[in-house]
């Protein structure tokens, strides 16, 4: 796990299962940036090439460590009896559904880093509203 200037990252190996029954290990990386305080990114696949990036709520990931959470394209569930050391994330898009199993302790460590950068309830203090509006309007500062 790394933490640099408002950024936390965590590299790990994910086990990915699809409805077709394929199970394969893939490199995975979580990224949290204080400038986007409500979101985490999960990158699946090689760092060089066509990695898939999913962005979802930091609070969804944190809740999913404790109990099943999410109702849309991203759902997170804690350890189960059969895999007590893994966190399960179900990702759904128009191409299908995948079950991602990640080491629960690494995810918990990543969340501790993210919450140390931006404690819960202080996210709004870290937003750059003026910069976002400028970017949306296509103007440079």
CATH T-level fold name = Transcriptional Co-activator pc4, Chain A
CATH superfamily: Sporulation-specific cell division protein SsgB
Low-confidence stretches: none
Report strand %.
35-45%
Strand tally is 8
Q: What is the ordering of alpha helices and beta strands? A: EEEEEHEEEHH
**Total number of helices:** 3
Report the top-level CATH class. Mainly Beta
CATH architecture heading? Roll
Oligomer: single chain
Q: Which structural class should the secondary elements be placed in?
A: alpha+beta
Q: Helicity level, as a percent range? A: 10-25%
List the domain count as a whole number. 1
**Bulk shape:** globular
Largest sheet: 8 strands, antiparallel
* Distance between the amino and carboxyl termini: 34 Å
Calculate the mean pLDDT score and round it: 86
Concise summary:
With 141 residues, the protein is of the alpha+beta class. Helices cover 23% and strands 41% of the residues. It has a single domain (2-137), classed as Transcriptional Co-activator pc4, Chain A.
Defining key terms:
single chain; 141 residues; alpha+beta; Transcriptional Co-activator pc4, Chain A; globular
Notes on the protein architecture:
It is a single chain. This protein is α+β, with helices and mostly antiparallel strands. It has helices at residues 58-66, 104-117, 129-137, and strands spanning 2-4, 7-18, 23-33, 39-44, 52-57, 74-77, 86-93, 96-103. The protein has a single domain (2-137), classed as Sporulation-specific cell division protein SsgB (Transcriptional Co-activator pc4, Chain A, Roll). The chain contains three helices and eight strands, in the order E-E-E-E-E-H-E-E-E-H-H. Strand 3 (23-33) and strand 4 (39-44) form a beta hairpin. It comes from Streptomyces eurythermus. Belongs to the SsgA family. Keywords: Cell cycle, Cell division, Septation, Sporulation.
